[in-house]
Design goal:
Layout (H helix, E strand, L loop, with lengths): L27 H27 L3 E5 L13 H6 L6 E7 L8 E8 L6 H5 L3 H5 L27 H4 L5 E6 L2 E3 L9 H7 L30 H7 L7 E8 L8 E7 L10 E7 L9 H27 L11 H4 L4
Antiparallel strand pairs: 1-8, 2-7, 3-6, 3-8, 4-5, 4-7
Length: 331
């Protein structure tokens, strides 16, 4: 035999699967102990998570419909597109429980598909971080260049549609300061948006999609833009607007002055202002606790069933008489 042309693999204990292995036998005791352990661990964790979620104070106020004047109730799109109509809207929010700082201010949009393929691709990551790549706009159509061929920075539909509603909050006659620093991910500010890249020709001509940007501030410091450009996976999403760093007492009334500028009426979208505190589990989220309790309950139920079966209908482990071909032998 010619060993040089042989296709026989080189022998090793690994390739021949001869290494030591653990092959556990799942006995009734192991199965019962596993289910009971998972159940007794998961249910308390779920109860703690639900308790933490219940301690979150969340206030949500939908304003897209109520902030349209009665004269424009049947033509909301005309109202939002008319530059001569005042867009200021005053809302009052009652505080049911004390809001302990930090209080997070979100805007929530519904029926807005940021995960649309064309929308998601309409950006230039290279342009956002490198000032020498401002002409890299081939993926940004239709918002890539001005009519005279000058590049738009930042280009693309995502940046062009930047959310531009604004909120001013006050209580007991005093303005509530909203801190807009540190609302974006640090990794995004450092790695994805350049500290020496500045907006150019942004929202300068044609149809204006949303907010404008200060051309004297680099993109790495334009945190509203950074938050907006981390696109959402679902059509209902929240994005962080800012943080309130003072407590708000229970039963206070918060006066909210809203500049209702963002056009969600074109596609039947909805807008909400959300104030929320957090706990160790984050914001209000009952799903995590209910999931733990559900899985734990199922495991406990299965464990108790196995115990009853093992006590009342036991069988010898590895008994070949239970094999199907032994239970129904061929005559």
């Amino acid at each position: 035999m010619d060993h040089k042309n042989s296709k026989k693999p080189t022998y090793s204990r690994f390739s021949q699967q001869e290494l030591p292995a653990w092959k556990p036998i799942l006995t009734p005791g192991w199965a019962i102990a596993s289910f009971i352990t998972i159940g007794t661990l998961f249910i308390p964790i779920g109860l703690l998570a639900l308790s933490a979620s219940d301690n979150v104070v969340e206030i949500s106020d939908r304003y897209d419909e109520v902030c349209v004047p009665d004269d424009y109730s049947s033509k909301a799109e005309s109202y939002i597109q008319n530059p001569d109509v005042k867009k200021t809207c005053i809302r009052t929010i009652k505080v049911p429980k004390k809001l302990v700082a930090p209080i997070f201010v979100y805007y929530q949009l519904e029926n807005f598909y940021q995960n649309h393929r064309r929308y998601v691709k309409s950006r230039s990551n290279k342009q956002l971080r490198d000032p020498k790549a401002e002409d890299d706009t081939h993926d940004c159509f239709p918002k890539s260049k001005t009519k005279d061929g000058k590049p738009i920075v930042p280009c693309g539909l995502i940046a062009w549609s930047l959310f531009n509603d604004t909120y001013k909050l006050s209580t007991r006659g005093k303005e509530i300061s909203i801190n807009k620093k540190g609302i974006a991910w640090k990794s995004d500010r450092k790695a994805k948006f350049g500290s020496n890249v500045y907006p150019k020709n942004f929202q300068k001509e044609g149809l204006i999609g949303g907010a404008t940007l200060d051309e004297q501030i680099p993109l790495s410091e334009q945190e509203d833009l950074i938050v907006w450009m981390r696109t959402a996976a679902l059509p209902k999403f929240r994005k962080l607007y800012g943080k309130i760093e003072t407590d708000i007492e229970a039963h206070d009334s918060i006066k909210v002055e809203i500049e209702n500028n963002y056009n969600t009426y074109k596609f039947g979208g909805r807008k909400k202002l959300v104030l929320s505190t957090t706990t160790w589990i984050g914001g209000k989220n009952d799903f995590v606790g209910m999931a733990y309790i559900g899985v734990g309950g199922i495991c406990l139920f299965m464990g108790i069933n196995f115990i009853l079966l093992y006590v009342f209908r036991p069988r010898r482990l590895g008994d070949p008489s239970y094999l199907s071909w032994n239970r129904h032998p061929i005559a």
